[in-house]
Amino acid sequence: MALATRLDKLGTETAFAVSLAAAEWGAQGNRIFPFHLGDLNLPTPRNIVEAMNKAIADGKTGYCPAAGIPQLREALAHDIGSNRGLNFGPENVVVQPGGKPVITKFIQAVMNPGDEVLYPNPGYPIYESQIDYFGGVAKPYRYIPTGTNFSIDIEQIESLITPKTKAIIYNDLQNPNGAESTDAEREALAALAIKHDLWVLSDEAYFDMRYAGKSKSIASIPGMAERTVILYTYSKKYAMTGWRLGAAIAPTELATVIAKLNTNDESCTTHFVQYGGVEGVTGDQSSVPAMLSVLKDRRDAALEILRDTNGIKVHTPEAGFYLFPDITEAMANKGITDLADFAQQALHETGVSFCTRRHFGTPQPDETLQYIRLAFSGIDKADIVDGLGLLKQWIEA
After folding, report:
1. Which CATH number does the domain housing residue 23 bear?
2. Does the pLDDT value for residue 14 go beyond 80?
3. Residue 243 burial (CB < 10 Å; 0-12/13-18/19+)?
4. Domain-terminating residue out of 255, 282, 309
5. Per DSSP, which regions of the chain are E strands?
6. Which of 40, 233, 259, 390 could in theory staple to 350 by disulfide, Cβ–Cβ 3.0 to 4.6 A?
C-alpha cells in the first residue's frame, strides 16, 4: 500500500542519527564522549518535580484547556513579557508539548502552499523540514564569520524577499553556531519584516541561558510584537527536555489559531506537567544560576583545549551550550577532504561524537569553511577534558 507522497518532503532532527552511530560504536565496547545531542545531563530542579507530583496526587490527570491551564498562561505572560519589556496577557500564550510544536503550528497558521519562508542555514533542521512538508518554499539565509562571532547576511535576506515571501524564521543565540545579533542587526531584520509585512518566528530557546550580558528579543522593537511569535521552551532553562513543555507567545488573533491547532493535534499539553511549569517560573530560581555555572565551566574547559589544538578556531558564545569550531585547517592537516569522514574517523579513533555543519542544512554554494558542533550540555567537565584531549592528540598526530 502506498504512503502519502508528502512524506518525501519530511526531514528529521539529524542529531539523533549521530546518536545512533555513537550508540552502535559504544555497544562494541568503545568509550563514547557525547558532544552530539543538545540534551542536559543535569536534573530538573526539585521544586518543579515536587509541584508536578503534587498535581498528580491532586488528580490533575485529565484533559485541560487546549491553550493551557490559566495559571500557567498567566505566569508565562508575566515572566516572558517582563523580561522583554512587553505587556503580554494570558490570551497571548498558548502552551505546547515542547518548543518544537511552535515551529510546526506557526508555519501551518501563516503559510499557504507556495509561500516562501526564509530560515537560517546553518540552523535547526526542523525549520526547513516543516516548510517543505506543508508545501512552502524554503529559502535559506546565511551567516558570515566575523572572527569573533557570526553575523546574519542582511543583504542576502533583502535580496531573497519577493512578493511571495510570507515569513522569516529567526534564531538569535543561534543553534548551532551560537551567534548573537547586535542591536543594529536585529533592528535591520525588524525593518525588513515591517517593510515587507512579514510574520516572524523568533526562536528564543536559549534566551535565558546566558553566561554574560543580557538577551534581547526582536519582538521588543516597535512594530514587531504584532507580527512576531516567540518560541519559548522549558527544556533548556529548567533542564526539562523530556517533560515536553513550551509555549507560543503570539498576537491574539494568531494565538487563537494555534490553540485550535492544539485541539486538532494533541488536545492539550499534559495536565500535571503544566503545574511543574507554573512552579518553574514562579518558584525558587536558585537552580538556574547554579546550572549556568556548571555549563560555563564546561564551556571554558572545552574552549581551552580547542584553542590549544592546531588547526582549530572557535569563538566564545555568551549563551546556549554549543561550540562551533572551524576545523578547515585541521582537516587539511589530516588530509581529510570530506566532513562526514572526519566525523567518523574522530569517533572511531577517539570516541568523540559530534554533529557537523551538514547536520544543520545543506551548505550554501559559496561556503568554503568546515565546521563541527560540540554540545557541552550532556557531558561532564572531566569527560570534556578527556575527550577533547584525545581529539587534540588525534588531530595533531
Report:
1. 3.90.1150.10
2. no
3. buried
4. 282
5. 33-34, 93-96, 116-120, 137-141, 143-145, 150-152, 165-170, 199-203, 228-233, 246-249, 322-323, 352-353, 355-356, 372-375
6. 390
- Average pLDDT (40-64) is 98
**Percent of the chain whose predicted confidence (pLDDT) is above 70:** 100
With a CB cutoff of 8 Å and minimum separation 6, the contacts of 256 are none
CA angle 323, 327, 328 (to 5 degrees): 145
**Domain end: 282, 312, 328, which one?**
282
Q: Do the domain assignments include residue 58?
A: no
Together in a domain, 35 and 137: no
Is residue 54 in some structural domain? no
Per-residue model confidence (pLDDT) at position 46 = 97
pLDDT at 178 over 90: yes
In one-letter notation, the amino acid at residue 308 is: D
Is residue 345 domain-shared with residue 358, that is, in the same domain?
yes
Record the cell numbers describing residue 108, joined without a space: 501551518
Q: What is the mean pLDDT of the chain?
A: 96
Burial class (CB in 10 A: 0-12, 13-18, 19+), 394: middle
291: cell is 546550572
